[in-house]
């Protein structure tokens, strides 16, 4: 960081400069700066929803694009996610209070036998940023837990993540279990994870395979909208 | 093509195996296309069992960090060498390719090792599956020696140690699956466990299913 940046006082920036700066700080994974800037915008009477969408989500979109283009790598994305999480922690209770738009509800988890949750956590965070309500089942999630929670919570989407070649077939078990219970068409089923691909998603009968968190958000929005339009 | 007994220490340096792989070594008519991380182990099995029908070539081990590139690299190697050999064996597990490598090997009519990863076939697939240790992080001899290059630095832990809980928070222990008896390397693996804040355990496996895979090729 340059001396000039060291001297930057966030509260002295106007709104436009501050949101630009937040996107830079998010890119650089500066959690404390993000938390400070979120508080400044709240003090300036920005709505939590605007802060979320116009600074944090917009900033993470740039991070996601640069990750896809090979400019940023996993550690940098995780740093940015940590920073966004800091801002989200401030905004989340306020979003509920102020009645931000709701896109839908998603139950998400890493499948049974798998403890890898980095990708799942990124998707959950970006989905939350896009206005989805997230019920995070964590790691090592069994079919009954996915389905039972989705039923109980009235979810629209079931999201499954796996990092291992040995655990990804469990996604098929979950989908088969949905089918056996006559619930398959009730939910949008999304899957993702490093060893997966579109062919696998199709083979197990998922509605879509999502290559990264940004694609998961776009896909979820599209499929939820399509579902709402069904007669 | 070089006879196995003339291979230089330089060719088997970890850095060379990591970045360049290994050129054709041996005089046999069955070619083993292996991950560079397995070069020393394949050569040891060949030597111990006098498997003179085998020739070894290795792809750069660093592909381990970008598994999606493994199938294309294997396909190029098979295509390049196919005309010169009677048979080709692929000494890889699935290695994070999500079944893509198996699909490729089926299409090319070559045999690969039926295991998810190298550490699974060193342990022995039957044992590995029975143990079912999802909260265990594994190192082999090669990965212990190359811990910084294959684990610490690619995960950015040299620059951002605060990311450690995000990567390893759900793990409980590190198991070093040792192919050789080497106290120094055991210390290196133990130190890796300490850096990852995981319990340490060492299991001697020898060459496990890799040995069987190569020895069985005599019968084919």
TrEMBL record, chain A:
GO terms for cellular component: cytosol. Residues 9-103 form the B12-binding N-terminal domain. GO terms for biological process: homocysteine metabolic process; methylation; tetrahydrofolate metabolic process. Keywords: Cobalt, Metal-binding, Methyltransferase, Transferase. Residues 103-231 form the B12-binding domain. InterPro entries: Cbl-bd_cap (IPR003759), Cobalamin-bd (IPR006158), Cobalamin-bd_sf (IPR036724), Met_Synthase/Corrinoid (IPR050554), Meth_synthase_dom (IPR036594). It comes from the Bacteria. PROSITE patterns: B12_BINDING, B12_BINDING_NTER. GO terms for molecular function: cobalamin binding; metal ion binding; methionine synthase activity. Gene3D superfamilies: Cobalamin-binding domain (3.40.50.280), Methionine synthase domain (1.10.1240.10). It holds the Pfam family B12-binding_2. CDD domains: corrinoid_protein_B12-BD (cd02070). Belongs to the methylamine corrinoid protein family. This is 5-methyltetrahydrofolate--homocysteine methyltransferase. It comes from Celeribacter neptunius.
Automatic annotation (TrEMBL), chain B:
Residues 58-213 form the DUF1638 domain. Pfam families: DUF1638. It comes from the Bacteria. This is DUF1638 domain-containing protein. It comes from Celeribacter neptunius. The lineage of its organism: Bacteria, Pseudomonadati, Pseudomonadota, Alphaproteobacteria, Rhodobacterales.
């Amino acid at each position: 960081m340059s001396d000039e940046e060291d001297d930057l006082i966030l509260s002295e920036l106007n709104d436009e400069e501050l949101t630009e700066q937040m996107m830079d700080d998010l890119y650089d994974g500066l959690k404390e700066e993000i938390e400070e800037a979120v508080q400044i915008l709240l003090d300036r009477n920005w709505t939590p929803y605007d802060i979320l969408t116009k600074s944090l989500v917009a900033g993470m979109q740039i991070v996601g694009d640069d990750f896809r283009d090979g400019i940023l790598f996993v550690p940098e994305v995780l740093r940015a996610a940590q920073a966004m999480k800091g801002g989200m922690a401030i905004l989340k209770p306020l979003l509920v209070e102020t009645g931000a738009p709701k896109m839908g509800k998603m139950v998400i988890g890493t499948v049974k036998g798998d403890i890898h949750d980095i990708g799942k956590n990124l998707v959950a965070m970006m989905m939350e940023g896009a206005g989805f309500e997230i019920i995070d089942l964590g790691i090592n999630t069994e079919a009954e837990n996915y389905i039972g929670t989705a039923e109980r919570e009235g979810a629209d989407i079931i999201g499954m993540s796996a990092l291992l070649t040995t655990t990804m077939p469990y996604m098929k078990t979950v989908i088969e279990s949905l089918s056996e219970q006559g619930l398959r068409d009730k939910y949008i089923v999304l899957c993702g994870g490093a060893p997966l691909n579109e062919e696998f998603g199709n083979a197990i009968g998922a509605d879509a395979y999502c290559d990264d968190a940004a694609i998961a958000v776009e896909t979820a929005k599209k499929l939820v909208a399509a579902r709402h339009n069904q007669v | 093509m070089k006879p196995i007994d003339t291979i230089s220490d330089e060719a088997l340096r970890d850095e060379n195996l990591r970045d360049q792989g290994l050129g054709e070594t041996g005089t046999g008519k069955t070619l083993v296309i292996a991950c560079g991380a397995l070069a020393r182990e394949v050569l040891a099995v060949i030597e111990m069992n006098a498997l003179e029908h085998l020739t070894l070539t290795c792809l750069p081990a660093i592909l381990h960090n970008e598994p999606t590139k493994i199938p294309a690299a294997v396909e190029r190697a098979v295509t390049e060498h196919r005309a010169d050999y009677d048979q080709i064996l692929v000494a890889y597990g699935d290695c994070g390719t999500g079944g893509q490598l198996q699909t490729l090997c089926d299409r090319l009519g070559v045999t690969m090792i039926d295991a998810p990863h190298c550490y699974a076939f060193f342990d022995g697939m039957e044992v590995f599956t029975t143990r079912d240790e999802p909260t265990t992080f594994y190192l082999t001899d090669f990965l212990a020696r190359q811990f910084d290059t294959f684990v610490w630095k690619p995960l950015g832990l040299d620059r951002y140690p605060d990311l450690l809980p995000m990567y390893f928070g759900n793990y409980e222990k590190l198991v070093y699956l040792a192919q050789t008896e080497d106290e120094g390397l055991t210390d290196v693996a133990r130190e890796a466990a300490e850096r990852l804040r995981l319990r340490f355990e060492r299991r001697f496996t020898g060459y496990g299913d890799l040995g069987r895979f190569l020895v069985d090729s005599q019968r084919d």
